[in-house]
From TrEMBL:
Protein name in the entry: Tail-specific protease
Annotated source species: Hymenobacter gummosus
CDD domains xrefs: cpPDZ_CPP-like, Peptidase_S41_CPP
A single Gene Ontology CC term: outer membrane-bounded periplasmic space
TM segment ranges: 9-27
Family in the record: Belongs to the peptidase S41A family.
All residue ranges annotated as the PDZ domain in the record: 255-327
Superkingdom, taxonomy of origin: Bacteria
Keyword annotations of the record: Hydrolase, Membrane, Protease, Serine protease, Transmembrane, Transmembrane helix
Length: 712
């Protein structure tokens, strides 16, 4: 995504004033008691949305219907809990939600919560009953796996039959796993004793029961704050998919993704059998330095310093983490059970934890006598909070390019695949590394004129051959950079049929800062991320909805999936504005010739041909969402899919590996740093057999070998 966090400035001040005004209206002139948290949050949020959103909604019956439809999908997307009679009860409020939010009531929310709580408990008893008896896998029947095609059950009998098929489907898949495990067993080992078919079926049901029990345990732990967060976010999402309400814990997760940093103990945790288990210790973190917490430890209780500890056994993982994380310099005391059964209290002083995988990294690819730089950027991170040690993706990419130039690379492949975006400012600065001064992107609010964001630095840090790789999960800031490179004809864009199609800019407002002290008793409220602008290419077209179409399109194993902005609920539409004034790159790559050569290589490649075949088969299967619940039929389909997968894997293994080496500058730094060594090893391992990267390297080589043509 592309977003801006505002701290000061006229725009921020105006929107903050709107929130404050809305909150004061909740108190003043009514003589009524102080409002509840839900009323304050929803009214203040809607007031801000109506004033600041790119395309504000009227709070009317149409708004009400949008909220109703989306909330119903959110609370029961599988259509396995609510009955048709329940939906009919809820539908009475379909055009009344707007009136309820205006007056601060919540009848629809209360009824939906009551119905879901009741049905969840009933369904839990239902699946447990179904899994208590053997299941017959000889019956030739089917299960609908596409929930969009399903209907809410007419009554409890229909619901039981639907759950019977659902449970049977899950048990069948687990039974196939058990059968595969048995086929691989070692008869010489006592622990690998043979199981009878009856025992395997029972084991499969046992595994499914555990899976459902864990899922329902999480669902039943949802509290009033969880429900309020879901409700507020649903309302926000009816404006567009990227306008969101962040509960405090969700905002923290978002910040981690955008900065690569958080404050805590530095341990990776997982929930297993109702226990919070330490899965890994992040090297260099507070836990690593303290030394007593180990992988495999079970965290039983958590105390904030000398305070009374809180039990986290049986607690949902995200809630347990909220107790364990905390501000740098504060102490947390963990009561843990060691693998030997002993119990120990471990005090840890929290510190900043750096998630290295977030950051840019580069390598050298030696191919056919050419030295080509590889640059990978997972997200457009930025130091939004001006924290000491915070990093900027634009600065990091600049440093990586300098290191690549020091290695005398002859071309660069810049990999933005599956990069969901981030800082708009960094995207603009990054484009400026490859072009001289000029416009990079245009932004426009709902009512205002377009503003051109320029690269004002006439220096070009890198002027050689460039290929920028994208896929359908490259979004927002990635699309800004790709579109600018394409419009300037500065390099070659390669990838799937189009990028994601998110062409909007968001701003984040901290509601606790916006709302006055009168509401301190019911804070925290969280944050609101709202769409305030659309961005447009310098050629005038929007990337919204349509994305960026690469110059060279490669076969994509996921192209059969319906993914992208156009598939999201209530997405803003494509439009265009006037083009900005700019001059294309004088040494523009000869796209037509490069595309012709690439197409010939792809057509001759057995690996790409297989990818194309797989895509065609998956397209044909995509609409056939009814799966057989007969074990023999399922196993036959599974065997066919496994054979196809093996064929592809074998071709990949047989393909020549790319020669990927770390940079000399990095080798000097990481000689004694095992964390960085492992990070670079992981990157190389995932790339050596990457056929799309190999083709991108070939296109760079074609540019190196092509005679330079300068336009004047």
């Amino acid at each position: 995504m592309s977003f801006i966090r505002l701290k000061i400035g006229l725009y921020a001040a105006v929107v903050m004033a709107v929130f404050v005004l809305a909150s004061y209206k909740l108190y003043r002139g009514t003589g009524a008691p102080a409002p509840e948290k839900e009323e304050v949050l929803i009214k203040a949020m809607l007031q801000g949305l109506s004033q600041a959103h790119y395309q504000p909604e009227q709070i009317d019956d149409n708004f009400s219907k949008r909220v109703f439809d989306l909330y119903l999908k959110r609370i029961d997307y599988s259509k396995k809990f609510l009955l048709q009679s329940d939906v009919a009860q809820l539908r009475k409020y379909q055009t009344e939600i707007d009136d309820q939010v205006k007056r601060g009531s919540h009848e629809f929310l209360e009824l939906s919560t009551q119905l879901m709580d009741q049905r969840t408990k009933e369904v839990q008893a239902l699946y447990r009953d179904l899994l208590s008896k053997p299941i017959d896998f000889m019956v030739d029947e089917t299960f609908q796996t596409d929930f969009d095609k399903a209907q809410f059950p007419a009554d409890k009998a229909a619901q039981r039959d639907e759950w019977r098929r659902y449970v049977k489907y899950h048990t069948m898949t687990r039974l196939a796993e058990v059968q595969d495990e048995q086929a691989k067993r070692d008869p010489k080992k006592a622990t690998d004793a043979a199981m009878t078919p009856v025992q395997m079926e029972a084991e499969a049901r046992k595994r499914v029961l555990k899976y459902f029990d864990e899922q329902f345990s999480d669902m039943l732990q949802n509290d009033a704050n969880d429900r309020l967060a879901l409700w507020a976010n649903t309302i926000a999402n009816t404006y567009d998919p990227h306008t969101e309400y962040f509960a405090p814990k969700d905002k923290e997760t978002f910040d981690i993704a955008m900065t690569g940093r958080f404050e805590g103990i530095g341990a990776t945790l997982q929930e297993k059998d109702g226990q919070i288990k330490v899965a890994d210790i992040i090297p260099g973190s507070a836990s690593y330095r303290q030394g007593q917490l180990k992988t495999g430890d079970l965290i039983q209780r958590v105390a904030q310093g000398a305070a009374e500890p809180v039990s986290v056994e049986g607690m949902r993982l995200d809630k347990a983490i909220s107790f364990i994380r905390g501000a740098k310099g504060t102490e947390v005391r963990l009561t843990v059970k060691k693998p030997d059964g002993s119990t120990q209290v471990i005090p840890i002083i929290r510190d900043v934890v750096v998630v290295e995988e977030t950051y840019a990294q580069s390598a050298i690819i030696n191919e056919g006598g050419k030295k080509i730089g590889y640059l990978r950027l997972p997200t457009f991170y930025a130091n939004f909070n001006d924290e000491k040690g915070g990093r900027s993706s634009a600065e990091d990419v600049k440093k990586e390019i300098e290191k690549l130039k020091a290695e005398n690379v002859q071309g660069i492949v810049f990999d933005l695949r599956t990069n969901g975006g981030g800082s708009l400012t960094d995207a603009v600065e990054m484009a400026g590394l490859f072009i001289d001064s000029g416009p990079v992107v245009q932004v426009r609010s709902g009512q205002g004129s377009a503003q051109v964001l320029n690269d004002r630095d006439p220096r070009v840090q890198y002027d050689g051959p460039l290929v920028l790789m994208v896929n359908k999960y490259s979004a927002s800031a990635s699309e800004i950079l790709a579109a600018a490179i394409q419009d300037y004809k500065r390099g070659v864009i390669m990838g799937s049929t189009s990028t994601y199609g998110k062409g909007t800019v968001q701003r984040i407002f901290d509601l606790d800062d916006a709302l006055p002290a009168e509401f301190n008793a019911i804070k925290p409220f969280g944050s609101l991320k709202l769409t305030t602008q659309k961005f447009y290419r310098i050629n005038g077209g929007s990337t919204q909805f349509k994305g960026v179409v690469p110059d060279i399109i490669l076969p994509d194993a996921y192209s059969y999936l319906d993914q992208g902005e156009k598939e999201a609920d209530y997405a803003l539409k494509w439009d265009e504005i006037s083009a900005a004034r700019y001059r294309t790159w004088p040494q523009a790559p000869q796209i037509d010739k490069l595309k012709t050569a690439s197409t010939a290589r792809v057509a001759a490649s057995p690996s790409f041909k297989l990818v194309t075949d797989i895509v065609e088969r998956m397209r044909k299967r995509k609409d056939d969402t009814n799966v057989s619940l007969k074990l023999t039929s399922y196993r036959a389909e599974q065997a066919q899919a496994k054979a196809e997968s093996k064929k592809y894997d074998d071709l990949q293994k047989a393909a020549p590996a790319l020669n990927i080496a770390p940079l000399a500058a990095d080798l000097r730094v990481v000689q004694s740093d095992t964390v960085q060594q492992n990070r670079r090893r992981r990157m190389s391992k995932n790339l050596v057999k990457d056929i799309n990267l190999r083709e991108a390297v070939a296109v760079v080589k074609d540019q190196i070998d092509a005679p330079q043509v300068t336009k004047r």
